[in-house]
Design brief:
With 152 residues, the chain is mainly beta. Helix content is 0%, strand content 49%. The strands form three sheets. A four-stranded antiparallel β-sheet has the order 3-5-8-7, with no helix packed on it. Strands 4-10-9-6 form a four-stranded mixed β-sheet, with no helix packed on it.
Length: 152
């Protein structure tokens, strides 16, 4: 031995991104190293909806000037996404305040948006996109409004 060899190792992640820490052990015929260094792998992945996360796809709400819906969307991305690149499209043009928090691992995030419900025209189906690519969809229905029924 007496010499150090450095090689590049390429790993293909085939299922989930559950852990990003690995150890590497050198082996040679009839010998295994007594030293193992912890290696952290930081795989890049495009922003996408996290199916394993908690997500509410249908909301009920009243409308009014100060009324907002707080929507939390679980997301996987590395590097972390930029909140300014998220956009909600719905029945009306909305300017939703969006923040991003990182979960228990560096590539899991929660996209939290506050969608205004100023009047009845804001109810309906909404699509969240990131840089033009659809992330998920959700619906906001009117709540607490009753039609007057006439009985003859």
């Amino acid at each position: 031995m007496g010499r150090e060899i450095r090689d590049t190792l390429r790993l293909k992640v085939t299922k989930d991104f559950k852990y990003n820490k690995y150890s590497c052990t050198a082996t040679e015929e009839d010998m295994e190293s007594d030293r193992s260094d912890l290696v952290q792998i930081n795989p890049l992945c495009n922003t996408r909806f996290d199916k394993a996360g908690r997500f509410k796809s249908t909301y009920g709400s009243k409308s009014g000037i100060d009324t907002t819906i707080n929507v939390a969307v679980p997301n996987i991305a590395n590097p972390p996404p930029q909140s300014s690149d998220f956009k909600w499209d719905g029945p009306v043009q909305v300017s939703a305040r969006t923040t991003i928090s990182t979960g228990d691992v560096s590539y899991k995030h929660v996209i939290e948006s506050f969608i205004p419900m100023k009047d009845h025209t804001y109810f309906g189906n909404y699509t969240l996109s990131y840089k033009g690519q659809t992330v998920t969809r959700m619906t906001i229905n009117a709540e607490g409004y009753f039609e007057k029924i006439s009985i003859f």
